[in-house]
Amino acid sequence: MQLFTFHFKAMGGPCKVCVYENDESIAETLFQKAQAEVLRLETKYSRYLSDSIISQINQSAGQNDSILLDEETAQLLAFANTAFQQSDGLFDITSGVLRKAWDFKGGNLPTQNHLDELLLLVGWQKVAFSGSHIRLPVKGMEIDFGGFVKEYAADCAISVIEKHMLGKPVKALVDLAGDIAVTSFANQEPWSVGIRDPKSSEEALAAIGLESGAIASSGNYERYIDKDNQRYCHILNPLTGWPVLDGLASVSVKAEQCMIAGVISTVAMLKPRKEAEKWLKSLGCIYLAIDKYNEISGTYKK
Amino acid sequence: MKNKNSFLLALTSSALVLPAYQSQAATAPERSKFSYQFSSYQEDNTEASKTFGGESERYKIDVHQFKLLKPINDEYVVTLDLQTESLSGASPWFTELNNAGQPQLVMSGASISESRTDFNASIRRYDTNNEMGLSISNSSENDYTSTAFGFDGVYELENKHTTINAGFGISNDELTPTQKLIPTSVTYAEKDTSSWFVGVGQVINPNMVGQVGLSFTKHSGYLTDPYKKNDARPNERVMWALNGGIRYYVEDYDAALHADYRFFTDDWGIDSHTITVSWYQPIFENYDLVPTIRYYSQSEADFFSNSVDFNQTYYADDFRLSAYSAIETGLKLKQKFNDWAWSASVNYYQSQEETNSSPGLVNFFRYSLAIEYSWD
Amino acid sequence: MKQILRLLIVLSCIGLTACTTVQPWERGNLAKANMAWQPDPLDAQIRDHIYFAKEASSGGGKATGGGCGCN
């Protein structure tokens, strides 16, 4: 068995597909199918392509028509709805507009006024979602799948690999810029997933073994403003417009589905450190948390 | 925040409607599989002190088992089984008391040589919450033919934790006992069997499943053994069996513990207990080592005796209707790689006397070698 | 005999333990090959056949199939 690794760019970052196979042409086919699936979702849920379903929904905000949804989008919105309710509003796909107040490149904190204006456009509970149709009631409201489409794409890529193999076990891994999903396989060495040091992009601080399921991570090191000894990162609380100030530096969560691991890691990053760890423990899932002093904690096994 | 179970449960239920999360592991097997096993079964010689004429050999049987499993489409799977065995050796003819009043075996003089072929064909249908199977089989040897038909169903309840299974089978057997070697007055006889089973399976926790079941079987017709001198059995036999078992995953060892218990009782006065325990232990990269121990004990039939009274309506001195217990120990090694798997196992069955046991209790040794190939 | 009694007690205690709800994401261990009710069907077939021929009991776990002249 050889390890074949294929690199490509998608979802705003470096992606790769790893397959253990005897036959290189099979590994190639699996990569083509996985890549095609990721690109399909990148295109379908892009905020930038004006004819994507997301753009259609956002462009008709404030108007009277509801947009008819295809089955996949309707099911993903239902999932986002469940995540919103289960997280008491911390996971909210309408919170994307808040980025307009946050100038991470310039390094200036937003004014409370600006945030208050934008907060009027935030709140999934305001959206008219019937299960088959959606309507954003106020002009300027937006929905954004960016918070979970990458994780969903990792799950979909693994699913097409498994379906192509027709039930024959295969050891494969899909890594979309740090959101990772693997096929289920037994009797072989688990994949070893390195968890990045929040303070340095090259070093791994710890590793989680993966022989099924997925790992999703969230961290405060992607886009942030450091001011007065505080880090303000891009993960914003939809209720206040601000990030949490005494939260974790990063968290990686293992779950059966990457999409669910992603929701858990996002919500954990919005809680103060102690509360976040207590919550993660209560869920019973395997996680690795790193705080701002580089202290590692969690229920992971190497 | 909602509690742990509610959070993950809600998110998972919500995600599972998406096609990407519907694992294609429905219960139906997707790949074809051919398996073959060779077994060599050898009974220990009888004890010299318990046999008239001194120590005697008993049965030696070689068995070839072939199985072909083939999915026809998403729903249906066909299985074909063929078993051929060839037997040689001597068997107990009757028991009589020697001068000291001790029961002794009198063996059939000649060493017989026989073969048997058993063929079974079955079709099984898999659906989202149920399975159904139909099977026919035929066993034939030079003095005995049996034709059987069976049906079974499995139904999974909505909670997805409980399954109910039930089945029934009937068979018709014809005996045409060989006249030459052992004196017998029977030239043709028939026996009919009907059997019912109902069981409940339950997922107990993430590491354990259990099952309990009840079965009922009735034999009617000629049930006497035509090759035994002192044998006259009723025309009917009604049997009940109650079974329970668990399969338990032991996280620390990545091993599976299998434990089964069966209580059996019939209207011939026989009760028995059977306990079987196996431990499936993965070793190295893709091997499994499986030790097994089985304890069996049965009481004697009402009409069993080592010195039969021909004035009784029913009588038998066959060791299989005698009181005894037995311990069987076995060890199996299996390996799985790519589309192939093989296994090798040894088993030893050792009987122990109880009160009034027959002198013909059997001990046997069996080794088996199997190989399996799967394909799409 | 003492060992058997002990095992029976263990088995019945397991039976009395409250059954918990197993979530779909927790089913991984139950799906392992060694956790199948009968991981070795050919072996089970020959064992059942030998016990049918050598012991007084038969059945338990399913409806019994055809017979044979084994004795």
Features:
heterotrimer; B: 376 residues; mainly beta; Porin; two-stranded antiparallel sheet; 3% helix; C: 71 residues; mainly alpha; 2 helices; elongated
Q: What's the CATH H-level superfamily name of the largest domain in chain A?
A: ApbE-like domains
Strand portion of chain C: under 5%
Q: Name the strands of the widest sheet of chain A in spatial order.
A: 1-2-6-7-10-13-14-15
| Averaged pLDDT of chain C | 71
Class from helix and strand fractions of chain C: mainly alpha
Please work out how many helical segments of chain C DSSP would assign: 2
What value does the Rg of chain A take, in angstroms?
Answer: 20 Å
Biggest interface reads: B-C, 106 and 54 residues
Q: Could you give a short description of this structure?
A:
The complex is a heterotrimer of chains A (302), B (376) and C (71). In chain A, 30% of the residues lie in helices and 25% in strands. With 302 residues, chain A is an alpha+beta fold.
Q: How would you portray this structure in words?
A:
The complex is a heterotrimer of chains A (302), B (376) and C (71). Chain A has helices at 24-44, 53-59, 71-86, 112-119, 149-164, 258-268, 273-283, and strands spanning 2-10, 13-21, 67-68, 128-129, 133-135, 171-176, 179-182, 191-196, 204-210, 213-219, 224-227, 230-233, 250-255, 286-290, 296-298. Chain A is an alpha+beta fold and 302 residues long. Chain A has 2 domains: 2-41 and 148-298, T-fold, CATH 3.10.520; 53-58 and 67-143, Orthogonal Bundle (T-fold), CATH 1.10.3980. An 8-stranded antiparallel beta sheet of chain A has the order 1-2-6-7-10-13-14-15. A 3-stranded antiparallel beta sheet of chain A has the order 3-5-4, with no helix packed on it. Chain A is globular, with a radius of gyration of 20 Å. The relative contact order of chain A is 0.13. Chain B has a single domain (6-375), classed as Porin, CATH 2.40.160.40. The model of chain B has no long low-confidence stretch (mean pLDDT 91). Chain B is built from 1 helix and 20 strands. Chain B is mainly β. In chain B, the strands form 3 sheets. A 16-stranded antiparallel barrel of chain B has the order 1-2-3-6-7-8-9-10-11-13-14-15-16-18-19-20. By secondary structure, chain C is mostly helical. Chain C contains 2 helices and no strands. The radius of gyration of chain C is 17 Å and the shape is elongated. Chain C starts with a helix and ends in a 17-residue tail after the last helix. Residues 7-18 of chain C have low confidence and may be disordered. Chains in contact: A-B, A-C, B-C.
